[in-house]
Specification:
This protein has helices at 2-24, 30-34, 37-49, 60-72, 82-88, 98-105, 203-238, 250-278, 284-310, 321-331, 337-356, and strands at 110-113, 124-132, 135-145, 153-157, 159-160, 164-168, 174-179, 186-199, 240-241, 244-245. Among the domains are: 109-200, Butyryl-CoA Dehydrogenase, subunit A, domain 2 (Beta Barrel), CATH 2.40.110.10; 204-356, Butyryl-CoA Dehydrogenase, subunit A, domain 3, CATH 1.20.140. 52% of the residues lie in helices and 16% in strands. The protein is an alpha+beta fold. It is globular. It contains 11 helices and 10 strands. The relative contact order is 0.11.
Length: 366
């Protein structure tokens, strides 16, 4: 019964988030709103007032639903990083914990920048050194950072004095450059002797953050792919060809049937991974990798098949379909994509087999 109640709660949350985004970020205005910093900041205030911005570290299932719905609405709010931020800035993070209160109030927004530590070869790296007066000096650069126009703080993975550092995006020595990207603008952030607050967290926390970022990308891609699928189904019902709706043709039916199966399976795997973390399962990261390994290629197929069903309509920038297509293909390759997830699953399986046999662990891939 508890499981059913939990499912009901999740679906009620989904309806609430979808309704709020429909009012705050109408799909027919999304392209223009994305280029308007004021609209982004206003949307962030609404997100904070709804409690989306500062979910606790054990509210992963709720966070995943919210991120999925932002993907469906093509809304670029920096909510993908929310669970990773909560994991790092929770109890034990010292003064940096106060930033979570600002995030909850809508006066701050935090983006996570892992650089190459996140599995992206061109992601850049930052070195922390010279611990003085509770601060570290930061040198280097990170790429592919989200939240342009909204974020006030950056949570960095660093090499050197501390595994993580928190720094204000407008601090002296911090330079932000907007860079074009497939699904919308990203940022390259450069640090030239900038001061940051060190976070001495265990390696397990950094690993959890990496897994949560990957899961967030899959959640957002799932929302975008799901919306593409809805558009394709609606088009198949209404588009007439040879005197009947194209949805009556078996080739179209097969594509849509495969899409429905892929979306359901991806959502179930995502929910399983989120629930595993919320319930404290030790190997929840393997559930997250399983979700990434399956969903990344599956969601790309859904988006591609939706484009085929939509035909020329799906290529018109006045239509919402191209935005969802780009989001799916951008998010499913972030942080190493499915290939890296399969490698981690393989390493975990070898570790488990070695432990069962009483041998020393061969070591997992990070």
């Amino acid at each position: 019964m508890a499981v059913v109640e939990a499912e009901d709660t999740i679906e009620l949350l989904r309806e609430s988030v979808r309704g709020t985004l429909r009012r705050q970020w109408p799909v027919d205005q999304a392209a223009g709103l994305q280029r308007d910093p004021t609209a982004l900041r206003d949307a962030w205030q609404v997100a904070a007032s709804q409690g989306w911005a500062a979910l606790g570290s054990r509210q992963t299932a709720a966070w995943a639903v919210i991120v999925e719905e932002t993907g469906r609405a093509a809304c670029p709010l920096p909510l993908r990083d929310g669970a990773a931020v909560a994991a790092a800035l929770g109890p034990g993070a010292g003064p940096a914990t106060a930033v979570l209160e600002q995030v909850a109030a809508g006066t701050a927004a935090v983006a996570v920048a892992m650089g190459t530590r996140g599995g992206e070869r061109a992601g850049g790296a930052v070195r922390s050194s010279a611990l003085l007066d509770g601060q570290v000096r930061l040198q280097g650069n990170v790429r592919f950072v989200e939240g342009a126009g909204v974020i006030t703080h950056l949570l960095l993975a660093t090499d050197g004095e501390a595994p993580l550092a928190l720094v204000e995006s407008a601090a002296p020595g911090v330079t932000t450059v907007i860079t074009p990207a497939l699904a919308g603008p990203l940022m390259e952030v450069r640090f030239d002797d900038a001061a940051g607050t060190p976070l001495q967290v265990p390696a397990s926390v950094v690993g959890d953050m990496q897994a949560l970022l990957r899961l967030g990308c899959i959640a957002r891609a799932l929302g975008a792919a799901g919306r593409s699928f809805e558009l394709a189904v609606d088009h198949a019902r209404n588009r007439q060809q040879f005197g009947s709706p194209i949805g009556r043709f078996q080739a179209v039916q097969h594509r849509l049937s495969d899409g429905a199966i892929a979306l359901d399976a991806s959502r179930l795997l995502l929910r399983r991974a989120a629930s595993a973390r919320d319930s404290g399962e030790e190997r929840w990261r393997e559930c997250a990798d399983a979700a990434c390994a399956y969903a990344a290629p599956a969601l790309r197929r859904v988006a591609r098949d939706a484009q085929h069903v939509l035909a020329g309509v799906g290529y018109m920038e006045e239509h919402e379909a191209p935005r969802h297509f780009r989001r799916v293909f951008a998010d499913t390759v972030r942080f190493g994509g499915a290939a890296a997830a399969r490698a981690r699953l393989g390493a975990a399986s070898l570790d488990a087999a070695a432990m069962t046999a009483g041998l020393s662990s061969p070591g997992a891939i990070g």
